[in-house]
Amino acid sequence: MKKGLFLHLSVLAILIAFISSCSKTTEYTNAIPADATSVVALNLKSLGEKAGIGDKENKEALQKLTDVLKNEMNAATFQQLETVLKDPNKAGIDLKSPVYLFNTPNMKAALVAKVSNEDDLENLLQVTEKEQISSAVAEGDGYRYATLSNQAILAFTPSALVMVSYSGEAQLENAKGQVSNLLKQTAEQSIANSEGFKKAMKKNGEINVFIALNELSNSYAQMMKQRLPNSENWEEMFLLGSLSFEKGEINFEAEWYTNNDELRKKLEQQAKATTRPIQNNLLKYFPQSSLALFSMGINGEEVFKYLQENEDFQKSISMKQFNDLKVFFDAFQNDITIGLINVTMQNAPAFLAYAEAKNSDVLKALYEKKNELGLQRGTDIIRLNENEYVYKSRKLNVFFGIKDKTFYATNDELLYKSIGKASDPSAAKAEYASEIKGKNMAFIINIESICSLPVVKMLAQFGGQQAASALSLCDNLTYLEVTGDIQKANFSLKMKNKEVNSLKQIVNFARQFAGM
Fold first, then answer.
1. How far is CA 346 from CA 123, 446, 455, 475, in A?
2. Residue among 170, 171, 152, 172 nearest 162 (CA)
3. CA–CA separation, 327 and 301 (whole Å)
4. Each residue of 267-308: pLDDT tens digit?
5. CB-CB contact of 492 with 481 (8 Å)
6. Rounded to an integer, what distance in angstroms lies between the CA atom of residue 56 and that of residue 34?
7. Whole-angstrom Cα distance, residue 358 to residue 476?
8. With 60 as the cut, is the pLDDT of residue 232 above it?
9. In the chain, what are the helix, strand and coil shares in percent, each to the nearest 5?
10. pLDDT over 70 (residue 223)
11. What whole-number distance in Å separates Cα of residue 138 and Cα of residue 125?
């Protein structure tokens, strides 16, 4: 590949952010087929604005790349490209409108964009042809096209551009047929007619997504499948997501969608019955410097009812185990909080768990039936005091019990000795405390505390430039917050600088790392 290719593509990527107006025409989305299993919409205009591409320092970086390109390309070719550099609208592609990436069961990767001027687009392709990036423009079935290194076909009409990947010359004809079918679709034949897709694309993120559940990883899809009343319904579930860059934070909002009313009601009823809003009743026991925290509100009795409906669960336990588990689940209500604690500078992090419990009978029953639990050789459960026990093994000890109707467990003796005592300062005073209250689930990773660990700093010191850069990036972050309620989940990465947009901070870091 020629050296100028990378530089050329870099300039084109930066040009994206210089478009400033917005188009409302959406007919080009008709080229996205109705059976698309995932669609990602990129709002390039907003991405460019939030990245600060138009700022002085980034304009200077663009000029440097332009100067290098001028030396790499012949004069005539550069003159054509320079026209686009001075006026990005001359690229022929309306980058003010969303660009869509998608795939289907028959297409691994495809792209759809809006064409603003067919002649300008062809002029740009003449540049890529001279730089041996693409073939010459040829005539297709109702469209014009060029190929990219026998790996993708780029086809366009006066209104739409479609790019479909393929493997080798032998697959070109098939790809041309796919492109022809996409460009001939009506709104009724496309995903533009899907209510779920419409809902996803109305979100305000710089990147919006519409993904079928069966496109997710097998383990994650299987986890979700177990929540559904009938196994065949899982194919009717979609993830609607929206990624946005705000001042001091990066947010990703996700929600599940289905047009199956019966399935949606079942899931909502299940979530309402089994979970409860977090009250933050237990945060006072965890230090503000906790490395990680997980908290949720639970209705143990209802959770067990839904487990009863799971066929795999029914087959895996006996009636006696069933009754024992029912007593266990029934004991827990409201908040459960688990933390990873850096107890001392020398020891490895310890875990600490608290849960609101109705009574202590469940632990007494567990202790009385310890011989029936099938404990391995060298392990035992020992009673320390009333409602206080320790699980002992060769590798670790776990102290657990119930105090003042609160269950606790920890693998650290120092934490065990301070059970029931509030930390100072506690996680209840942390910035995220007010944000997770009222949610059904929350997970916090304290990036600031993790990066301050001596072992992390040591690894960065001996890990070379990449490790040092990673730690430098982490030094700009405070924590990752994941929260969820009955309908939605939100992932939020918080930064120390609350005044500058998060995307611009990332761009600035990348420029510094690249020495620009």
1. 65, 19, 9, 22
2. 152
3. 9
4. 888 788 888 999 999 999 999 999 999 999 988 888 877 777
5. yes
6. 43
7. 43
8. no
9. 45, 25, 30
10. no
11. 11
Tokens of 131: 């730089």
- CA-wise closest residue to 31 among 215, 176, 203, 180: 180
* Cα distance between residue 423 and residue 430, in whole Å: 12
Mean pLDDT across the stretch 66-87?
Answer: 62
Average pLDDT over residues 20-39: 74
Q: What is the rounded end-to-end Cα distance, in angstroms, of the chain?
A: 24
DSSP state of 191: G
pLDDT number for residue 169: 84
**Token reading at 187:** 């709104």
31 vs 113: CA distance, rounded Å: 9
Residue 209: pLDDT over 90: yes
pTM > 0.85: no
- Signed CA dihedral, 41, 34, 167, 171: sign only: negative
Residues 172-206, buried b or exposed e (16+ Cβ, 10 A)?
eeebbebbbebbebeeeebbbebebbeebbebebb
In 3D, which of 163, 155, 162, 144 has the Cα closest to residue 30?
162
Of the CA atoms within 13 Å of residue 407, those in its CB half-sphere come to 21
Q: Are 387 and 401 in contact (CB under 8 A)?
A: yes
Strand partners, 160: 114
Supply 271's token pair.
């979530």
Residue that the structure tokens 């009938």 belong to: 230
The predicted-structure confidence for 45-68, as pLDDT tens digits, reads as follows 888 888 887 666 555 665 665 665
Provide the greatest CA pair distance for the chain: 88
